[in-house]
Amino acid sequence: MLLDIYIIYFVALLPVVFLISYVYKKDLYPEDKREVFITFLLGASIILFLDILIPAVEIFNNTFFKGISNKAFMSFFRAATLEETLKLLVLYFYASKLDNFDEPMDAIVFATAASLGFAAIENVNYVFHTTETQSQAFSVALARAFSAVPLHGLNGVIMGLFFGLALFGDKDNKKYLFLALAVPIFIHGIYNFFLLINAGILIYIILFILFSRSSKIFNRIRMGQQLKGHEYWERTYTINSSEIYMNVLKITGIIIVGVIVLELIFNA
After folding, report:
1. Quick check: 168 and 103 in contact, CB under 8 A?
2. What predicted TM-score, i.e. pTM, was given to this entire model?
3. Is the pLDDT of residue 52 over 70?
4. Which of 90, 160, 157, 76 minimizes the C-alpha distance to 118?
5. CB 235, CB 167: distance < 8 Å
6. How far is 31 from 9, CA to CA, in rounded Å?
7. Residue 10 burial (CB < 10 Å; 0-12/13-18/19+)?
8. Extents of the domains making up the chain
9. Cα angle 142-150-118, degrees, rounded to a multiple of 5
10. Among the listed residues 259, 265, 8, the one whose alpha carbon sits nearest the alpha carbon of residue 133
11. Which of 26, 176, 195, 241 sits 20 to 30 Å CA-CA off 235?
């Protein structure tokens, strides 16, 4: 029985280890492993803040929204906005302040580490707290190894890409900072929404598209590394935390307006 539990833990955490190793090795000039691991742990700690925020959010959602609009708010705000915002804050407040954070690829590595740190703790919690038997736990762990965990990892790549462009790009820095949060929230929200409306098969289309895009992103960034060498990239833009908070408010406003529209259409 104890061996079975270890096997379930192994299945739940193996995709996390595989993905973070894959991304780390893609970097031609790897980051300090200790700093990446700390970022991973900070990503895992997100669950503590969610435990505080989610009850209030769920009360709000269940009070004002029903049916399809309730599912939309659950998907795009309760899950996507809260989780992706906290990941971005880890990237901003810790990783981007490091001396070694000196090129666009670093943003991808650290964003992915934060995302997979959260994915690891979420996966273990989900596997053991939403199932009643070890057989169910194993099945859930296996299913999430090919769905939820890759989603978090690939979303980290997307977030890191735009965050890196915001810091090191030559133009449109504010736009890229907005996209560093907006795009992962949109992808994450769509993923969760498909699950809640029992259209789970569509999530694999999302994952396939994300994987294809991520491969192109890696090739593009690695080519830039090869051309520039291990030369210091000068930051072209200084990000303020107030900008991130304002972007969160903008995205939240868009989500609430969209959910209200759904409420008026389907539940009026």
Report:
1. yes
2. 0.93
3. yes
4. 90
5. yes
6. 27
7. exposed
8. 2-267
9. 95
10. 8
11. 26
Write down the pLDDT at residue 251: 98
Q: Say which amino acid occupies 167.
A: L
Distance (Å, whole) CA 18 – CA 42: 19
Query: What backbone phi and psi angles, to 5 degrees, belong to 233?
Result: -90, 120
**pLDDT (tens digit per residue) in 183-210:** 999 999 999 999 999 887 888 888 888 8
> Residue written as tokens 């809260």?
82
Give me the pLDDT at residue 2, please.
Answer: 59
Residue that is written with structure tokens 């029985």 in the block: 1
Q: Residue 12 corresponds to which amino acid?
A: A
Location of structure tokens 């890409």:
161
Comparison of pLDDT for 130 and 86, the residue scoring more: 86
